[in-house]
């Protein structure tokens, strides 16, 4: 599965291109805007830059997002966050 990296954070001048990252949706607090799929992770390969339109660290493909959260939502908002760790 693929993703795009934010140019201000993860992209790192193109160094992130081709690297794989493991992504997990972590639910924090009540009244969450997105329903995470608890315990699910997805590994994505960075294939593009997510320039000014992307305010987050990583922009997941629909397939990748659906693996970790309910697809109808489309975004992780409010008191939730995505934890991203580099796969070595």
UniProtKB/TrEMBL annotation:
<dbReference type="InterPro" id="IPR009009">
    <property type="entry name" value="RlpA-like_DPBB"/>
</dbReference>
<feature type="domain" description="Expansin-like EG45">
    <location>
        <begin position="1"/>
        <end position="88"/>
    </location>
</feature>
<dbReference type="InterPro" id="IPR007112">
    <property type="entry name" value="Expansin/allergen_DPBB_dom"/>
</dbReference>
<dbReference type="GO" id="GO:0009627">
    <property type="term" value="P:systemic acquired resistance"/>
</dbReference>
<dbReference type="InterPro" id="IPR044206">
    <property type="entry name" value="EGC1/2"/>
</dbReference>
<protein>
    <recommendedName>
        <fullName>Expansin-like EG45 domain-containing protein</fullName>
    </recommendedName>
</protein>
<dbReference type="GO" id="GO:0048046">
    <property type="term" value="C:apoplast"/>
</dbReference>
<dbReference type="Pfam" id="PF03330">
    <property type="entry name" value="DPBB_1"/>
</dbReference>
<dbReference type="InterPro" id="IPR036908">
    <property type="entry name" value="RlpA-like_sf"/>
</dbReference>
């Amino acid at each position: 599965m693929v993703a795009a990296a934010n140019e201000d954070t993860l992209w790192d001048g193109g160094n992130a291109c081709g690297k794989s990252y493991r992504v997990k949706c972590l639910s924090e607090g009540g009244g969450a805007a997105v329903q995470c799929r608890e315990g699910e992770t997805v590994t994505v390969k960075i294939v593009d830059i997510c320039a000014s339109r992307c305010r987050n660290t990583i922009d997941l493909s629909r397939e990748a997002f659906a693996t970790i959260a309910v697809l109808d939502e489309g975004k992780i908002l409010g008191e939730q966050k995505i934890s991203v760790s580099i796969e070595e």
